[in-house]
Amino acid sequence: MTQTQLAPTAVPLVKKEDSYLDHILAHAKRNNPESIIKETHKFAIERYWLMNVGPEKSPLVEQVLLEKRPKVAIEIGCYLGYSAIRFAAYIRDTLGIQDVKYYSFEISEYHANIARKVIDFAGLSHIITVITGPFNESLERLLSNHNLLSKVDFVFIDHHKELTSNYWRKAGYFTLSVTFSERCFTCHSPNSHACYVLTALPCIQGTTIVADNVIKPGAPVYLEYVRSDPTKYQTRFVEGWLEYYEGVIRDGLEVSVWLK
Ligand SMILES: C[S@@+](CC[C@H](N)C(=O)[O-])C[C@H]1O[C@@H](n2cnc3c(N)ncnc32)[C@H](O)[C@@H]1O
């Protein structure tokens, strides 16, 4: 049997995330977040699609950051560090907030390890902390052991897309995140879990919460929750495109401000 005949069933030896790291280390400039973002787009368009927030929706998030000017930001779902690098650099360099702290939660050790290397290469390790583990457990640990998250002014919710849309939908739970699963199964109240992230965080009056992918794959219970009580959240939808599918697949962000 020839190499050509074997090719279609062959398992790739290198995962795309490892190739991404190699690409960044080889082509981007050290201590230059902008060049890392540029090379990430190049990789995602020319090599493999990546599930980061991407070039289409990031400017929409940056507009929110411009209005909010956060000093303590967190995100749920780090993946390979794209949004952490892009938004932390934007807050520090464009908004001039030198002492910003950005905490990024990531369930996968594999993703977190790559993200830390890219963040270090970007020269942002002193600003961005990647916390490995399921978000709810990490959060509980941080809140009980440290004073790291004494107050949070900006939250970016960007969990695993496939699990959000398919797995839990099949299971009958339209929750925002797999993190909420354990709680879903114990109290059978999807709404309370879709909003767990909001109620569990040490939000303060005015904390801004941006949820990605509320159209694709969608987060109907989350939207219902934040839109149901105008005395609790001031909320708006911002339309955009799915990452790397500009003009093809619609998506959007829900931007909510915690009022009380
Ligand atoms: C869409 S990606 C995040 C993309 C990233 N925010 C960006 O724009 O560069 C989602 C990530 O969330 C992680 N994730 C999924 N469930 C999680 C959980 N319960 N706690 C923390 N991270 C989780 C996945 O492993 C994946 O790396």
Automatic annotation (TrEMBL):
Entry keyword annotation includes Glycoprotein: no
EC category name: transferase
Keyword Hydrolase in record: no
Pfam families named in the record: Methyltransf_3
Example of a GO MF term: catechol O-methyltransferase activity
Protein keywords: Catecholamine metabolism, Methyltransferase, S-adenosyl-L-methionine, Transferase
Any GO BP annotation: catecholamine metabolic process
EC nos: 2.1.1.6
Assigned protein family: Belongs to the class I-like SAM-binding methyltransferase superfamily. Cation-dependent O-methyltransferase family.
Protein name in the entry: catechol O-methyltransferase
Source species taxonomy: Eukaryota, Fungi, Fungi incertae sedis, Mucoromycota, Mucoromycotina
